[in-house]
Amino acid sequence: MNRKIILLLSLVSSSYFFAQSIEGKVTDMQNKPAPETEVLITKADTKFSAITDENGMFKIPLKEDGNYILEIIKDGVKTNTENITVKGNSTKDIQLKEAPVEQKLEGVTLTARKKLFERKVDRLVFNVENSVASQGIDAVEALAKTPMVRATDDAISIAGKSNVAIMINDRLLNLNGQELINYLKTIRSDDILKIEVITTPPAKYEAEGKSGLINIILKKNSSLGWNGSLQTSGSYYGDRPATSTRSGASFNYQGEKLSITSNLSIGDNYWENRSYNYLTGTTDNNYWKTNSTSNNNYRYKGGGLKGEYKINDKNLIGINYNYSFSNPLETGESRANIFDKDGSLDVSSNYSNRNRRNVHNASAFYDVKLDSLGSKLSVTANMMLNNSNARNFYNTITSDVVSTFANPISKYRIYSAQADLEKTFGKVKTEGGLKYTKIKNDSEFNFFTIEDGQNILNPKRTNTFFYNEQNYAAYASTSFKINDKWDAKAGLRYEYTTLEGISMNDDSSAKIKYGKFFPTAYISYKPNENNAFSLNYSRRISRPYFGNLNPFKFYVSEFEYSTGNPYLLPSFSDNLEFGYVVHNNFNVTLYYNRTKDDWDRIQVVEGKSKYSIVKNFFNEDQAGINISYNYNKLKWLESNIFLNGYYSKTKSYDPTAIAAPKGYSANFNLDNNFFLNKSKSLTLMLGLWSNLPNRDGNTYYFANASVYTGMKLNLMEKKLLINLYVNDLLNTNRNKGIEYYPNYDVEYYNKGITRNIYLSVTYKFGNNNVKGATKEVKFEESSRAGGASN
């Protein structure tokens, strides 16, 4: 029975026995009604309470006149405390206070604090709505302020994890890469209730990836109606010849039964990169030195539509559809100087690549509530279609010119179906489910030599590759509350995979079958409101991207190419974490993970030819600690600090690559928000991030750092949002490292146009309380397509 109905019945019955009462209205800082706010009246050991209605009104019957303590609790936070005297029927209106309050009872000081971080049994929760600095921005910027998470306009990652998947309201987004970033930029932080960081995903989720999950929980629909928003943003690169722009629109509708959300976006991103790759012999005097420049104009457009229909209180159906189209143009040139026992050779090359890519994602779901305890059955179906057609032109210049044309065509299809059952038995909650996934990738690589303006097919470099994969999964898990302080959760997932890769050019094939169990276990201990501990374990698998399995040879020049490996195997990792949260804003996590049969791309020299190939070649152990702290003691400042320190050790079992030296490393983030007015609508932002030297596989990475600053302005009651940033203020962001091999080392360097001025403007109209359709469907396999777009 709804708690409001219970409250109504209690008020009616109590009127016969209680002759005294207190009633009134609770308003917020802007004098607007504060619904669903708890009003608590205490006298000795006796307590009376009420929840305000949608107009902020409350009424509490009392047994007798006298002196009482009145407290106001909003969203779990105590905002007001005062002593009152009641005589007969009293009236009292209350306005919420902004800061936590202190109340002394019998020599003990009780302080109500805003809960920014919460440690749950299997995840860390960041309550976005309680962070002033996280308001008035988009979801990507909100993720950047989340503990353990690094988010930029290029990628999102979790400390100690190689990749991450994003969920909205417990359903995985069927997007990756730039499409994912574009979608997250359509979500405003004001619509986000909390962000959950799941570093060791439970058995319910795919065991794929040495990764974590980020679950963005949106605020519930609180009213009927509609709203929309318009966004535009751009980056200016100073003395560069182009800018990057993005424009978008979103619309939400909420009815009694039907909810609809749609969005459109279009963009034109510009990217420039300068790099070198210096291969130097350690057992001889050979070397291969390459200097390159490249320019990328990434043009895209896309949109999405989500719809949900509430059949009744127990049944919900919905569909999701996303489409994206991109046709990036990449041009570049390089100069290489090659020296070996036969002498030296100077090589120049240039290229122009255009890739047209269409991606369709479609999903459907059906949820049915089975009882009043929270039991539920969910059935989902997913489909992803990707068509990629590239036109790549290369010119290699030595004493003469060799011109070539490559036409790689990729068509991959991913289908999945899943059923999940949640059943509650008293204090025990159980989950179980089945899933089937089919992945099919048909690729053609047509290679031509250009002579007298004619494209002449080169059969030796032309190939067709077929890839088929099927995954069968089943899982079961249970979670239960041992007592008021202890919670536990455990699960087991089994996945069986069959895959086959066929290369038509060399008439070779690879067939692999394997089945593995993936256990997960969690336990948490919360002795009081200010301390929470957790311990968890999980086993994971990382399957190769499609592009890394494809044996096509992608030529940069007549002397250089990259290729995939159809015999590439998955890697497995074991992960152990211990977490501690104190005072709800200070988080410490100790972690250890061991990865077996990990892979990376290595460089191989054969005479005057050089190529790169992906291989399984190393095992890695990593142990570390990360610390997150939110400082909000001052009204004019909120700071988020994150520090991750770790020790890693790699062992190579392949003689073609040498493991990077073992050692310590760390990375650091600091975000400061200075509120320049009382309403906190004008904010100055200043932050930095830094990576100390680190290692992975056979690569040693040099230190890296970047500083940003900017202003944030909220106008028209947060309907107009303006952000102005200067990214990489000191122009220090670059990638530099050394790869180690038995007979040579490779030093590399990449520097893009990371320093830029970024301006974004968003205007919201309509009913801000309407969220529209918010569910997303799990489709973890779509992320593996990230390597298949080339």
UniProtKB/TrEMBL annotation:
Q: Which residues cross the membrane?
A: none
Subcellular locations according to the entry: Cell outer membrane
Indicate the secretion signal residues: 1-19
Entry-linked Gene3D superfamilies = Carboxypeptidase-like, regulatory domain, TonB-dependent receptor, beta-barrel domain
Q: Which InterPro entries match?
A: Beta-barrel_TonB_sf, CarboxyPept-like_regulatory, OMP_b-brl_3, TonB-dep_rcpt-like
Record-annotated Outer membrane protein beta-barrel domain positions = 369-763
Task: Name it.
Answer: Outer membrane receptor proteins, mostly Fe transport
The lineage is:
Bacteria, Pseudomonadati, Bacteroidota, Flavobacteriia, Flavobacteriales
